[in-house]
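Box 3.1 A note on notation
Throughout this textbook, protein chains are presented in two layers. The first layer is the amino acid sequence; the second is a token string describing backbone geometry. Keep the layers aligned when reading.
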Amino acid sequence: MCGRFGLFSELDELAEQFSFAPAAVRDGYRPRWNIPPTAPALAIRADGDRRAASIMRWGWTPPRGQAGGGAPRLLCNARAETVAQRPAFRSAFATRRCLAPANGFYEWRPGPGRSKTPLWFHHNAGAAVAFAGLWFNAQTADGGQESCVIITCAANGLVAPAHNRMPVILEPAQFDTWLSDQSPADALLSLLDSREWPRMAAYEVSAAVNRTANEGPQLVAPFVKDLDDRQPGLL
């Protein structure tokens, strides 16, 4: 799954990287190092032959008829393997796909007993990446707020020691295919396959990230225990 991520690049930098006009989100965007479900998140979608950015709630509560039985609950992730068939997601997969920019994401590696160590997974050059996402319009159980979810796939070799799932990360050359209304389903699904990412790295960070109320760049600083002088890098 993807349960926490960060996006702290400057807005104008993101606008240039992802080719959108920043004016529409300038008042709503702020750098965040600890984004949990239900928090505002930047999403980029197609707008004709251009791209448009919006601030959406991360997490969507489907109407009862799309919840798949039982009471509707907040959904933050969609599994790549079932996203095209699951009632809660299939319409959005067909018509409302988006990019969710992130500088990285957190997972917690199991340790002795019930202990878990937080890890920061990121591009090794510090650049933002794009998660594959879906967005949902105002006609939902959320009371009118646009929402988005992040699509996950099986973890690659870097992430697997911490968790068996990870966000789908799209290459820039794949953005237009993912966002286009003209892309066939088989082409879209092929983008969601798990793959290794040689440009991704991970390192241990402070347990301060465990509290969603904590914010700031110190959350993604490498954790140094005692006199250990470990440096960021591949685990």
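Residues 11-18 form the longest helix (8 residues). The longest strand covers residues 50-58.
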